[in-house]
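Write out the bound-state structure for zinc ion.
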Amino acid sequence: MSLSPQQIVTALTQMLGADSVVSEPGQMAGYVSEPRRRFHVPALAVALPRTVEEVQGLMAWANENAVRVIPQAGNTGLVGGQVPMFGDEIIVSISRLEGVRNVDAAAGHMTLDAGTTLHEAHEVAEKAGMLFPLYIASQGSARIGGVLGSNAGGVQVLSYGNARELCLGVEAVLADGSLYSGLNALRKDNTGYDLKDLLVGSEGTLGIITAATLKLFPKPDFHETAFLNVASPDAALELFTRIRGRAGNMLTAFELMPRIGIALQLKHGMIAQDPAPEPSAWHVLVEISVPRGGEAGRLAAAVEEAFSDGLVSNGTIAGSLKHRDEMWLAREQMSEVQSREGASIKHDVSVPVAAVPELIARGTEAAERLVPGIRAVPFGHLGDGNIHFNFSQPEGADALAFMAGAGEIHEAVYAVVRELGGSVSAEHGIGQLKTALLVAVKDPVALKMMRAIKSALDPKDILNPGKLLG
Ligand code: ZN
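---
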């Protein structure tokens, strides 16, 4: 017989203590609402364990009693993976599992508890004179367990890789409460299935990550950052190829933005001044990270050459840290600005890098055919082939009517993505938002393997039910 909500709260309180359980609906608001406010299902309770042992005890009890559990870290996910779907789940927040277990700058790794925020992770690395190069807009509140669970990407994947590539090992509590102790720091470990990579990106469906060993990199001596005007995504791609050829792995960011994104930020007073010297159909933010002993001027030389070849029509190279921050702010607010401009329909997609211009052209055309006046705002990580292909409603349109047509826009964009050999979720994951889409597009054999793994590790389907695999 299943436990009543009251029995669940009582059991949690007995296990963890009253100050580690939240069951007042008002106090749970911060845990059940998510950044895009799309999902509005309550939870039975929020548990806030303080130790890995408490997480183990909680999971053993949940498994025994078939209580459904949603692992949650910073609650910054964009696909609803960290919030309830059914209303009978408990949220297990790992936010109290904060701390540094070990930092070894010489060997190039650090081990952190999973509740540590990404911002704190940056500071721990910095204090050791090193760099942990994973940067996302929500880094102040995103926590390591969630960053790994969702395999976050960000603006430096180009050079350093996504969360999966930055992780050497994890520790995780499985559905039955047992502890997988995979915190090794080995660069080479060829002893069977890669369980670390199975847990990273599993969106809390296979285990609760409680700690991780992460790679550290030498800190760049300085950055060279430019905000450049280009005529088209094709020109941006050509520029990317050239600068990558000159800078190799030192090219740490190459971000594409359409003019409308900058114009709207100016309109809504989100930036004080235009980061571009003059308007242009497209802009790119390029950054080179130069290691100690590296010479300055590499980016300026590349830009000079691109300018004389007519590839770049104008641009600015950051003259100070403040100037660099202003350029990055304009990039980071590209998503946020859309919410000031009414409703928007969003896609986080990737295609082979060379196909990005075709993706943007065909996707925009298809959406404009469906909704005349729709405003395409495709931006993002051109160097990774990952575009946040967003659309703002036509000016003055009714937001609800616009959103009612989202399904058709999704279908049109995803059709182009698939024809180009791309992915319908590049870096945000599946969560509860894209489960039907995953079933529609994923290789059936891959799905069969994923389901087999899920039922072997979590036979009662208590870990993040309904998410990822539906
Ligand atoms: Zn992104």
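---
The chain has 17 helices and 19 strands.
The mean pLDDT is 96.
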